[in-house]
Design a protein that fits this description.
Blueprint (H helix, E strand, L loop, with lengths): L4 H4 L5 H12 L3 E6 L6 E5 H17 L7 E5 L4 H11 L4 E5 L5 H11 L1 E6 L2 H7 L2 H4 L5 E4 L8 H10 L12 E6 L9 E5 H14 L9 E4 L6 H14 L2 E4 L6 H8 L3 E4 L1 H18 L1 H19 L6 H21 L6 E4 L6 H9 L4 E6 L6 E4 L12 E2 L4 E5 L10 E6 L6 E2 L3 H7 L6 E9 L5 E6 L4 E2 L5 E2 L1 H8 L5 E7 L7 E6 L1 H11 L5 H4 L3 H14 L11 E4 L19 H17 L1
Parallel strand pairs: 1-10, 3-4, 3-5, 5-6, 9-10, 11-12, 12-13, 24-25
Antiparallel strand pairs: 1-2, 7-8, 8-18, 13-14, 14-15, 16-17, 17-19, 19-20, 21-22, 23-24
Helix pairs in contact: 2-10, 3-4, 3-8, 9-10, 12-13, 13-14
Amino acid sequence: MTHAATELGGPDNLVDLFENAVKKFKDNQLFGTKNQAGTDYDWITYADVAQRVDHLRGGLAAAGVGMGDGVGIIANNRNEWAIAAYATYGLGARYIPMYEAELKRIMKYIIEDSGVKVLLVSRDDILDKVKDFPDEIEGLEKIFVIEGKGENTLAELERIGKANPVPAIKPAKEDIAGLIYTSGTTGNPKGVLLSHYNLASNAVAATMTLPDYVSAGDRTLSFLPWAHSFGQTAELHMLINFGGQTGFAESPATIVDDLALVRPTLLIAVPRIFNKVYTGLKDKMEKQGGLAKFLFDMGLAAAAEKRASGGNAGWLNNLKLAIVDKIVYSKVREKFGGRMKMALSSSAALNPKIAEFFYDIGIPVCEAWGMTELSPAHTVNTPETNRPGSVGRPIPGCSVKIDHSVALDNAEEGEVIAYGPNVMVGYHNLPDATAEVLREDGGLHTGDLGRVDKDGYLYITGRIKEQYKLENGKYVFPVDIEEAIKLSMFIDSAMIHGANKPYNVAIVVPDWLVVMPWAKEQGLPEDPQSLVTHPKLIARIEQEVNDACKEMAVYETPKKILILPEAFSPENGILTPTLKLKRREVHNAFGDRIEALYAQ
């Protein structure tokens, strides 16, 4: 299934997308970086960025980059990340991003597998990791440092390019714009080949879906890595297509302060951000008690009544909501900068309770769905048509169908097959893996299980590879259970296990920011290693898990729990850089202790 660029009314390559935006918005602000004092953001315009793109394009050409060559970058989101991307596209070359926090062996694998010719790195400490790669990897010729001085720096490339300008070429729609490597929850990551039309059409279609929320002057805070497909398309290509602005978050620890300075109207985020705000607010209300907790609970009840009545719950209910909004909810909106019109959430399942809560406080959080192989957006909810629990309807040019040949208990469900101009070209150097997922009719086997309702909304119910059967033959979809458990303010991370076992067990990491003050009040030890074996904490975590699962089937509820002291994180290898759970790594690290839960 193919769709011509004219159907979407936009460019079919990223060079035209960028140059069109510069013509329309040249004097508008584009990227903002926090100043050294940490008191404000310094902004550069579309014209500023375009000038540096022109200079760097000439510099990369002088370094030997040409049509089809690979330009790699190891850097967090910053001005130069985008400048290097559009300079690369203008040479017909391929852009290959990597995470600063990526393991060295994975960096080496990606550079070698993708055929990187020129590598850009952010700082000298990253250079120290990769400085020997040109001697070890055939085809890697040069490394340049973004923040460095002197030769072999980005500044020197731009100086050379300014003196030796090279005009941008216009890539064909089918030309490869770049490779984005999947998170690698199992084995080596796969390099997803994405064409110019894959990415440009996705940015255009996503813009068309949200006409009242994405327009020139709308602003976001950038904290999703652009090395990941969701951040790259939504925060970079789509944002530039509609003339938006983005300020770079200084770090995960400063996001609250950065929101207040940038004052975004739109947020591109993952569920973890919204979960933390929700559980943090609940924890604060519980600790304050009294009037604060009473108002918070009253607001939740009034909002639920309003939804149940279709918006006509009566004047008294509306009065309650107005009081809670003024005293509580308005302060939450201010935490987000006070201008938020909506947020897009993707990359993991968003709990419907979280979506409903943020809608109630005046910040619609709309869940979208896709994957790297889909460039990545395929379906999206909008504030006007938001249906919590679903991932929305297909964006323009895209469609889905359900393959019911997958054996399931629910006859409505099956594998989601995706069609559209955003379907990847294939996996780099992996013809067999490509053939497994790309159908002859142009569809992509997504590996996601789902169903479509009568109004065309897609519901994702699990992953084929993650679903499993208990001994009794019942199917279990662990992600739904995990997300419910993580709504407890006492729990930071959770994993459900039970394949071919008599019952499910849960591996849980407490949220120590909440648990430590509680432990002090209880007179318990104040170090995680001691606490995880203390009967009082075990009883509390068991109660939290049971409460989270009270509306689930009996066979889904974990019967035993393993409590761990250390959070799941990219640093200990249990989460990917995009915060996806590596189940295999949990089993590798704690397999004996997990199995012991069944032996007891």
